[in-house]
Write a structure and sequence with these properties.
Layout lengths: L4 E4 L5 H10 L4 E4 L16 H9 L3 E3 L10 E4 L14 H11 L7 E4 L7 H14 L8 E4 L18 E5 L2 H11 L6 E3 L3 H32 L3 H8 L26 E2 L4 E2 L5 H27 L8 E5 L15 H10 L3 E5 L7 E2 L2 E2 L6 H7 L2 E4 L8 H7 L3 E3 L10 E2 L1
Parallel strand pairs: 1-2, 1-4, 2-3, 4-5, 5-6, 7-8, 11-12, 11-15, 15-16, 16-17
Antiparallel strand pairs: 6-7, 9-10, 13-14
Helix pairs in contact: 3-4, 6-8, 8-9
Length: 414
């Protein structure tokens, strides 16, 4: 066989998986019907350097579906974005399944990694694979779900030391998937089945959003009563049990959006009740960009200036520090609202060479500290490691730190 593994979908999940598999010595191909979707560089999951290393290590991409019929394992990493109705869009999974099914061979292990509702593997993916291939899952080929746990920019936890949860259609399916992932990670955790593995992903994602929402509410509350929330968190996280520190920010970005299983769009039905905590977390986190705008306007006003005509510098427009990905980053909404108020914006981000807001290019600051000194207000949205925050706090006329990253007393904090 020309390859052991086919990664279907070369986006924020697929390319890092291909990178890990190739590094582990697994012969890997990447399939994506739309080559631009597999591109890297600015905003991509891999840097240009990482991509060159991946290709030199033997990884190759293809747009030929027939190549999928020549591998032992196929992992579907298709994107499942939230639609306007807050339901996951499973269209890309369906497309990947139909393409794979037309070339699926007996004894192949098929694994879904995309974010999905409980039941997606069995009730949505399985029928597409079986009807398109004439094969039966659990008998002729193995089928399993394993939630992706890739954390871009994390220098501590990667594929090798992050346990993988696996839920197979049958015990044999679970073991087949476990045999594959054991080549990538130090620990494999077997779930009772695909539904449990899918629900684990739902729980992990919603846990993060709900706890961030709590911190965002606390940020507003503590500011109103004159309490330093960042010091509160510093104290609280010394408790060795019953507390895990999360931190507030200008909004929640990234690819892992909160999931409410009430919206089972692929089945055309609803549970009849929402997960209220998830809905509330989404509401709270969705308000944070507007709260940042409010704080900006108030700070300018307190210093005798108006938002209209103010020179505002935004620092860090990606959704996480030290990566180029802008998916869901609150910087875009913050910039849009500031522009609508009549502010004159510039931005700086070492990972984003060009940035457009409201279909207009935002000027990029060439000299960070000169731009901060010239701006009426500098807003730190993402504390990239390359930023000298102590020096920045000295140079800036007025600095709003939305991440609590600057030294105490050096800036106004969220």
């Amino acid at each position: 066989m020309p390859a052991d593994l086919a990664v279907i979908g070369l986006g924020h999940l697929g390319l890092p998986l291909a990178q890990a598999a190739t590094a582990a010595g697994i012969s890997t191909i990447g399939y994506d019907p739309d080559p631009p979707a597999a591109s890297c560089g600015a905003g991509g999951p891999l840097s240009a350097t990482e991509l060159r290393r991946l290709l030199s290590a033997g990884f190759r991409t293809t747009t030929e579906p027939a190549a999928l019929g020549k591998v032992r394992t196929a992992v579907i990493c298709a994107p499942t974005p939230l639609g306007e109705d807050r339901a996951l869009d499973l269209t890309a999974i369906a497309d990947a399944a139909r393409t794979l099914a037309a070339h699926l061979r007996p004894h192949t292990t098929v694994i879904l990694e995309s974010t999905a509702y409980p039941g997606t593997t069995e009730e949505f993916l399985r029928p597409l694979l079986e009807s398109g291939s004439g094969l039966t899952a659990g008998r002729d080929f193995h089928l399993a779900y394993s939630p992706a746990r890739h954390d871009p920019g994390n220098r501590t936890h990667g594929h090798a030391n992050t346990p993988r949860v696996i839920g197979g259609l049958t015990p044999a399916c679970t073991e087949a998937a476990a045999a594959f992932y054991s080549r990538l990670t130090d620990k494999v955790v077997r779930a009772r089945g695909p539904r449990e593995a899918e629900t684990a992903k739902l729980l992990e994602t919603n846990y993060r959003h709900i706890n961030i929402a709590l911190m965002n509410e606390m940020a507003v509350f503590c500011h109103d009563i004159g309490v330093d929330l960042w010091d509160v968190i510093r104290c609280a996280e010394t408790k060795p049990f019953g507390f895990q520190a999360f931190r507030p920010g200008p909004g929640v970005g990234g690819h892992a959006a909160p999931i409410d299983p009430n919206y089972l769009a692929y089945k055309g039905r609803s549970l009849g009740y929402p997960l209220r905590m998830v809905e509330l977390a989404q509401e709270v986190n969705g308000r944070m960009p507007r709260y940042v705008i409010q704080r900006c306007a108030t700070l300018l006003n307190e210093h005798g200036k108006s938002a209209r005509g103010a020179r505002i510098l935004l620092l860090g427009v990606t959704y996480k520090p030290d990566i180029a990905d802008q998916e869901g980053a609150p910087a875009h909404e913050i910039a849009s609202r500031l522009m609508e108020l009549g502010a004159h914006l510039t931005y700086h981000d070492p990972y984003v060479p060009q940035w457009n807001v409201l279909d207009r290019p935002v000027p990029r600051a060439d000299s960070l500290y000169e731009a901060a000194a010239a701006a009426d207000l500098t807003v730190l949205l993402q504390p990239h490691r390359t930023y000298d925050l102590q020096g920045l706090s000295v140079k800036a006329q007025l600095l709003l730190d939305t991440r609590g990253a600057t030294p105490t007393g050096a800036a106004y904090r969220l």
